[in-house]
From TrEMBL:
GO function terms (MF aspect): serine-type endopeptidase activity; signal peptidase activity
Protein name as it appears in the record: Signal peptidase I
Keyword Signal set for record: yes
Any single biological process term in GO: signal peptide processing
Pfam families xrefs: Peptidase_S26
Catalytically driven reaction(s): Cleavage of hydrophobic, N-terminal signal or leader sequences from secreted and periplasmic proteins
Principal location class: membrane
Keyword Membrane listed: no
Organism: Actinoallomurus iriomotensis
Signal peptide: 1-19
Family label: Belongs to the peptidase S26 family.
Compartments where located: Cell membrane; Membrane
Superkingdom of origin: Bacteria
Cellular component annotations (GO), alphabetically ordered: plasma membrane
Length: 162
């Protein structure tokens, strides 16, 4: 049986792959949480961001560290998720099975085809924070899973997707 800590890492985390290449950092996505955008075990590049230098933009796929997201609450393991809402936004679920952003159902063409949303109440995103979710919602532990909004200062890179 897989230990809970290992399962959490497989569902939410990403792993550094190799050293930086032309100023970009390489990571490997170890789970299905970001499919179809990033397949399990797919390497990807991320443009590094200096601490506190990331300005959240809806739709970005970001690499970040949040000790509270790790099983022991102290880790520096990187995670990868999509920015779905930014400071000042109100996000909730569901309207016709879709996430609502500021009261309007959100078009999310990047989602896994069989995605169905689990209801959660409306959340106002505070200044300096953002709401992060995986693209394969059924298999993603993210802001909905009790983690809530994430500080923009936690972002260490922005994925470069082709």
């Amino acid at each position: 049986m897989i230990a809970m800590a290992t399962l959490l890492w497989l569902v939410t985390g990403c792993a550094p792959a190799s050293a930086a290449l032309h100023g970009y950092h390489r990571y490997t996505n170890p789970s299905v949480a970001m499919e179809p955008t990033l397949r399990a075990n797919q390497p990807f590049s991320a443009r590094p961001v200096r601490h506190g230098g990331y300005v959240p933009k809806r739709g970005d796929v970001v690499v970040f560290t949040m000790p509270s997201w790790t099983p022991d609450g102290r880790g520096t393991q990187p995670f990868v998720k999509r920015v779905v809402a930014i400071a000042g936004d109100r996000i909730g679920c569901c309207s016709g099975g879709r996430i609502t952003l500021n009261g309007t159902p959100l078009a999310e063409p990047y989602l896994a085809p069989d995605t169905s949303e689990t209801a959660f109440g409306t959340v106002a995103i505070p200044p300096g924070q953002m709401w992060l979710m995986g693209d394969n919602r059924a298999y993603s532990a993210d802001s909905r899973a009790g983690h809530g909004p994430v500080p923009a200062s936690a972002v260490i890179g922005v994925a470069v997707l082709r």
